[in-house]
Specification:
Elements (H helix, E strand, L loop, with lengths): L9 E3 L2 E3 L1 H6 L1 H9 L4 H14 L3 E7 L23 E3 L6 E3 L3 H4 L5 E8 L5 H10 L12 H9 L9 E4 L17 E3 L17 H14 L1 H27 L13 H7 L3 H15 L3 E6 L8 H25 L6 E6 L3 E2 L11 E2 L3 E6 L7 E3 L1 E2 L6 E3 L2 E2 H11 L7 E3 L5 E3 L13
Parallel strand pairs: 3-9, 3-10, 6-14, 6-17, 7-8, 7-9
Antiparallel strand pairs: 1-2, 4-5, 6-13, 10-13, 11-12, 15-16, 18-19
Helix pairs in contact: 2-3, 7-8, 10-11
Length: 432
C-alpha cells in the first residue's frame, strides 16, 4: 500500500528515481507486476532509461592519422622517439608528449589507450573502419557511428539535426537507418548554417501551406511506386522546416558566447568547432563530430605536429573542462582519435609514415574512468606490448558507455541482419 509520505531513491545503472518520478510511474509498475515483469524489474528498467536520457557523444576526429609518439605515447630517449619530450600530467605516473600542456591538466578525466591495433593502413579504408566498426565491403554500406548513436539515443520529436559534422566532409551516411540520421554538415562553425532563415514575406503558416501543397503534388508519384522516396523527402522537408522555426537554432550561434570563452577554445575552426559541439549537446543534439585535418605527416612531422597541437591542445582541454564545469561530462562521451598511427621509423624527410599496428586513442566522460592508461606499446613503440585493443573492442566500449547494446541487430536494405559490432568486447577497466 502506498502512502503520501513514501520516499523512494532507487539507483540502477546510474539512474535515479525520486519520489515524484516514482509516483508518476506507479501505474507502469503495477501493470508490470500483473504481467511478466516484477515491480522491481520495472523500476530498474525506468532507472536505466532515465540514465540514457540526455546522453550524447562528441567525436574529435584527427583526419590523416596523428603520431602516437607526439601525442599520448611519447618515447623520449628511444631511437624511435625523435626530439619529442614527455611532460607530466595532473595524474601521477602518466606522461604525454610536450605541446599538450593544457590536456595534461585534464588527465584526471581522460583514459589513454596506448595499445590500439588494426590492419588497415590506407587512409580511406581506415577512416571508414574507425567510423563504422567495419572494413569497407562492396555488398553493404554500413552506417557511421554518429548515425547509429543518434538513432539509438535521440528524441524523435527533437527539432534540430540529431547528428552534426563540423569541418571536413560528412562521408559516412546513415545508410539503411534512413535520411533522418544522416549528418548535418557545418563547414564553418563561425557562421550560422546556410538557408536557416525564412525568405522575406514567408511566415510559419505560409511555410506550412507550401509543405502541404508539396505533399499533394507528390501524391501521383507516390501512388506510381515512389512512396518510399516521397516519404523520405517529405520527412526531410518537415525536419528542415522544424529546424528553421526552432528556438533551439540559436545553439549554432557562437556570437552568444563571451569573447573570453571563444579565445580559450582558440580562434580557429577546430577550436570554435569544439565550442559549437559543447553548445549543441547542451541544446539536445545527440552526436557531434569535429574534424581537424592535416595529420598525414609524411614529412616535417615534428614541426607540423607542433602547429597542429597548438590548435588542438587548448580546444580539447577547454572542451573537457567546460563540459565538467557545466555538469555535462558525465552525460557526454568524448572521443579523440584518428584512423591509425605513425611509424616508429623516422623517414629521410623527418616524417612518419602509416602505422596501424600500434596507435593511441583518448576517451573521457559518460562513465569512463579517467586518470588511467590502458595497454602499452613496447619501449620503442613498434608493437603492442600489453593489452591489445582492436577497433571492434573500441566500438563495444563506445556503445557500452552510451548504454547501447553492441550486439543489437539492424537490417540492411536487403533484409540482412547486421550487428552494430561484429566481435570485440568492451574495455572493462574503463568502467570499474
Amino acid at each position: 500500500m502506498l502512502t503520501h509520505n513514501l520516499h523512494v531513491n532507487v539507483s540502477a545503472d546510474g539512474g535515479v528515481i525520486h519520489r515524484r518520478s516514482f509516483l508518476r510511474h506507479v501505474a507502469v509498475g503495477s501493470a508490470a507486476v500483473a504481467g511478466s515483469l516484477s515491480w522491481m524489474d520495472a523500476v530498474r528498467a525506468e532507472a536505466a532509461q532515465l540514465r540514457r536520457k540526455g546522453l550524447a557523444c562528441i567525436l574529435l576526429f584527427q583526419r590523416g592519422a596523428p603520431s602516437q609518439f607526439e601525442t599520448w605515447d611519447p618515447k623520449p630517449g628511444a631511437p624511435t622517439g625523435g626530439p619529442t619530450q614527455a611532460i607530466k600530467t595532473s595524474v601521477p605516473g602518466i606522461e604525454i608528449a610536450e605541446g599538450w600542456e593544457n590536456v595534461a591538466r585534464q588527465a584526471r578525466h581522460l583514459a589513454f589507450i596506448r595499445s590500439m591495433t588494426s590492419r588497415e593502413g590506407n587512409h580511406e579504408r581506415a577512416q571508414y573502419f574507425l567510423h563504422t566498426g567495419y572494413v569497407p565491403s562492396g555488398s553493404v554500406k554500413y552506417p557511421g557511428v554518429g548515425s547509429i548513436v543518434a538513432s539509438e539515443l535521440c528524441d524523435p520529436t527533437f527539432d534540430l539535426p540529431h547528428y552534426v559534422a563540423v569541418g571536413g566532409n560528412a562521408r559516412y551516411s546513415a545508410s539503411y537507418l534512413g535520411t533522418a540520421f544522416n549528418p548535418f554538415l557545418v563547414n564553418d562553425p563561425n557562421r550560422m548554417p546556410f538557408d536557416v532563415e525564412l525568405p522575406p514575406g514567408v511566415d510559419a503558416d505560409r511555410l506550412q501551406r507550401r509543405l502541404t501543397l508539396m505533399d499533394k503534388l507528390q501524391n501521383d508519384f507516390a501512388r506510381a511506386g515512389g512512396e518510399v522516396r516521397v516519404n523520405e523527402q517529405s520527412a526531410l522537408l518537415k525536419s528542415a522546416a522544424q529546424m528553421v522555426l526552432s528556438p533551439r537554432l540559436k545553439a549554432f550561434d557562437l556570437s552568444e558566447e563571451p569573447e573570453s570563452i571563444r579565445t580559450r577554445y582558440g580562434q580557429n575552426n577546430f577550436g570554435q568547432g569544439c565550442l559549437l559541439a559543447r553548445r549543441l549537446v547542451e541544446g539536445g543534439v545527440t552526436f557531434v563530430e569535429v574534424n581537424q585535418n592535416g595529420w598525414d605527416t609524411h614529412e616535417d612531422n615534428f614541426n607540423r605536429v607542433k602547429r597542429l597541437a597548438g590548435v588542438n591542445d587548448p580546444a580539447f582541454a577547454t572542451l573537457l573542462a567546460d563540459l565538467h564545469d557545466r555538469g555535462r561530462l558525465d552525460k557526454t562521451l568524448v572521443i579523440w582519435m584518428g584512423e591509425f598511427g605513425r611509424t616508429p621509423v623516422i623517414n629521410p624527410r623527418t616524417g612518419r609514415d602509416h602505422y596501424p599496428r600500434c596507435f593511441s586513442v583518448a576517451l573521457a566522460g559518460a562513465g569512463i574512468k579517467g586518470g588511467q592508461v590502458i595497454g602499452a606499446s613496447d619501449k620503442e613503440g613498434r608493437t603492442v606490448a600489453d593489452r591489445p585493443v582492436t577497433v571492434q573492442d573500441l566500438f563495444c566500449t563506445i556503445y557500452r558507455a552510451l548504454d547501447i547494446d553492441p550486439r543489437k541487430e539492424l537490417h540492411s536494405q536487403e533484409g540482412r541482419p547486421i550487428k552494430l559490432v561484429d566481435g570485440g568486447k568492451p574495455i572493462g577497466e574503463l568502467f570499474s
